[in-house]
Amino acid sequence: MKGRVIVLDTPNERGFAAALVVDGRLEDLILDPPKGSALPGSGDICTVRVTRKLPKAGAFCEMAGGQEGYLREAKNVREGERILVQVVSLPEPGKAVTLTTRLLFKGPRLILTPGAPGVNVSRKIGNEAERERLETVIREALAANRAIPGPDSLGVIVRTSARGEGAPELTREFDRLVGSWSERAAALRAPDGAHGETPGLPHNHALREWLFPRPDAILCDPELARNLASGNELGPRGFYGDESFLPLLRPEPDPFEAAGVHDAIDALGSPDIALDGGASMAVEPTRALVAVDVNTGADFSPAAGLKANLATARELPRQLRLRGLGGQIAVDFAPMPKQHRRTLEEALKKAFRDDPVETSLVGWTALGLYELQRKRERRPLAEVL
């Protein structure tokens, strides 16, 4: 299947699911948590109760389903208080979910920032006239919403995807984000004990993060296509009132089957990944870290190690993303001369630059391993399946 395709799968034994396929290759995958799991997703916004403040700045919070959360900055909260928080990252087994009170309501083009006023335009938009146009549109939208609670504390981040977008589309998206914020704020006034929210659907993530660059098609089952086209269910928040995406909907009885996603998921069950030129790498998560081993295969030429390592650098972000792996990652690259390390480091920087999951390239250890630290934004695929 050629082109950029968003695939939305309806509930089955795996729950909701969404995939991004580019030219027939699976590039991203979001799956519902296992049934019965109370663990929220990274970026989810929910209402929690502060249960215990620590002597310095942090506090522990009670989340939905009895899950414990840890709020790093808790100077302005009180024990027993119910507050809105956002999930920063998912925990290791047995640890608390990391939370923050700095909320980000994300849309495909805009990010609403309650409590952080101002309009900030992505630095990647270099054209000064375009930056000024976008800022003017958003300031006018802010001015038109003076009736909402605390309008002076609202801020907006204009994402790179807003470049060239019309004022009506941006204004509609802003209004949708304000509506989402108002709904969450209203949750604080809910009856005592109702301090949890349903985790975001994979569909919501897909239609927030993958609509730009604009896809060639959006595959989904016929019922979901009708709901999206009519503005029901995901429509108002998924497309943010932008009807230009409706012609991209393509009904399929089994969207994942039509896009070859099932086979791609099955392949992810193996730690072994074939690379260009006959090389391979193995990605194996352990309790302490994720271990990556690189093998040159049958190539014994002097340049075999560098070739295999460069192929690994290009493929590693995708494999970690699809497998939902984060935390500490140690890569045992194939043997190569030390003078080639700089070339490999540049390849790693380039590969991770556009990866949506925050990753720090730490560097080489005394034993010659390369370390990375990756934010735990996804659930490990092995746990979800």
Task: Give your account of this protein's structure.
With 385 residues, this protein is of the alpha+beta class. Among the domains are: 1-32 and 201-267; 45-100, Beta Barrel (OB fold (Dihydrolipoamide Acetyltransferase, E2P)), CATH 2.40.50.140; 271-384. The chain has helices at 128-143, 167-187, 202-209, 222-230, 235-238, 255-258, 261-267, 304-323, 341-353, 381-384; strands at 4-9, 17-22, 25-31, 45-53, 59-62, 68-71, 82-89, 97-100, 105-106, 110-114, 118-121, 154-158, 217-220, 249-251, 272-274, 280-285, 290-295, 327-332, 359-364, 370-374. The strands form four sheets. The protein has a six-stranded mixed beta sheet with strand order 15-16-17-18-20-19, covered by helices on one side. The two termini are 25 Å apart. Residues 193-197 have low confidence and may be disordered.
List the helices and strands and how they pair.
Elements: E1 4-9, E2 17-22, E3 25-31, E4 45-53, E5 59-62, E6 68-71, E7 82-89, E8 97-100, E9 105-106, E10 110-114, E11 118-121, H1 128-143, E12 154-158, H2 167-187, H3 202-209, E13 217-220, H4 222-230, H5 235-238, E14 249-251, H6 255-258, H7 261-267, E15 272-274, E16 280-285, E17 290-295, H8 304-323, E18 327-332, H9 341-353, E19 359-364, E20 370-374, H10 381-384
Parallel strand pairs: 1-13, 6-8, 11-12, 13-14, 17-18
Antiparallel strand pairs: 1-2, 2-3, 4-5, 4-7, 5-6, 7-8, 9-10, 10-12, 15-16, 16-17, 18-20, 19-20
